[in-house]
TrEMBL record:
Subcellular location as annotated: Cell membrane
GO molecular function, one term: ABC-type vitamin B12 transporter activity
NCBIfam families cross-referenced by the UniProt entry: cobal_cbiB
Gene: cobD
Source species of the chain: Marinobacterium nitratireducens
Name of the protein: Cobalamin biosynthesis protein CobD
UniProt cross-references to Pfam families, sorted A to Z: CobD_Cbib
Gene Ontology biological-process annotations: cobalamin biosynthetic process
The family this protein is said to belong to: Belongs to the CobD/CbiB family.
UniProt function note: Converts cobyric acid to cobinamide by the addition of aminopropanol on the F carboxylic group.
Single GO cellular component term: plasma membrane
InterPro entries: Cobalamin_biosynth_CobD/CbiB
Length: 307
């Protein structure tokens, strides 16, 4: 049943894309995040008080919805459609394509200014300083984890409560998980919980990228380059993805006017516009691999119970 629900959720995401902003649950959740932050965050407080406030905010925002999803297990007639909708809202596979395709089109038409503007919508670094192709590919590879494989993993592990927990925790990390003066302590809990939830999915994603590309190069880059990355989960995913595509990504990047000495990732040529399409194909093939493995395992379990 889980695999069937996954297939339906993925099909809805690919067919419909993200819901309109006015109807998207995460937009309403974002407004709730703003209110909780305004209530609890006091920058003048000491580090421990800010950290505790951030933990309390995380609990207030995530725990009730996760518990509500768990309570729906008592009513299968509600739980099954709610599971499909929950997974659909959590996925962003089509969104990866919708954000990347305009960048590709602008680059192929020679309009670098438009390509830079489009790429700035999906990357966090300073748009004026970034390498458009490399930044877009890095975003695709890393968001493959956040927008696709992390949600699928937790749906398999814990059903609707798992995917609700993962998506809300991931959203809070995107809002609070920055090492800026404002969020360094308040967002510590959100960042660490997101790291924990993504630890296994990130390595499964990295392995999927490696199996579907230049496997030896990907595994070597993962082993040698990922430890030098700031993110414990983004490092394996991007290093493996860059190696699988045989591209050179990463390197120094400018964030909010500050140059960060990030490590180089992968091995090969500098990326071109067509390599963005290759990155999308890699994520697409990885999703097909996950769904295929799920179908095989489900078929085997069904056969073994009736044998």
């Amino acid at each position: 049943m889980t695999v069937l629900l996954m297939l339906v959720g993925c099909a809805l995401d690919w067919r419909l894309g993200e819901p309109a902003l006015r109807w998207h649950p995460l937009v309403a959740f974002g407004r709730l995040v703003d209110r909780v932050e305004a209530l609890l965050l006091r920058p003048a407080q000491g580090p421990w008080r800010q950290t505790l406030a951030g933990f309390l905010g995380w609990l207030l925002l995530v725990a009730p919805w996760t518990l509500l999803a768990a309570l729906l297990l008592r009513w299968p007639a509600l739980y099954l459609p709610a599971s499909v909708l929950g997974l659909y809202w959590a996925l962003g596979f089509r969104s990866l394509h919708e954000h990347a395709q305009p960048v590709i089109a602008a680059l192929k038409s020679g309009n670098e200014t438009m390509a830079r503007d489009r790429a700035s919508l999906i990357v966090s670094r300073d748009a004026s300083q970034m390498n458009i192709e490399a930044s877009t590919i890095e975003s695709i590879l890393e968001n493959g984890l956040d927008a696709v494989f992390g949600a699928l993993f937790w749906f398999v592990v814990a059903g609707l409560p798992g995917v609700v927990l993962y998506r809300l925790a991931n959203t809070l990390d995107a809002r609070w998980g920055y090492r800026t003066p404002r969020y360094r302590y308040f967002g510590w809990c959100a960042a660490r919980i997101d790291d924990l939830l993504n630890w296994v999915p990130a390595r499964l994603t990295a392995l999927s990228y490696a199996l579907l590309g230049s496997t030896g190069t990907a595994l070597r880059c993962w082993r040698q380059q990922a430890p030098g990355c700031e993110s414990p989960n983004g490092g394996p995913v991007m290093a493996s993805g860059a190696g699988a595509l045989e591209l050179r990504l990463g390197g120094p990047a400018c964030y909010h006017g500050i140059l960060k000495a990030k490590p180089w990732l992968g091995n090969g040529a500098a990326p071109q516009a067509e390599d963005i399409e290759r990155a999308l194909k890699l994520v697409r093939n990885a999703l097909l691999l996950w769904l295929s493995v799920g179908l095989v395992l489900a078929g085997y379990m069904t056969w073994s119970t009736h044998a």
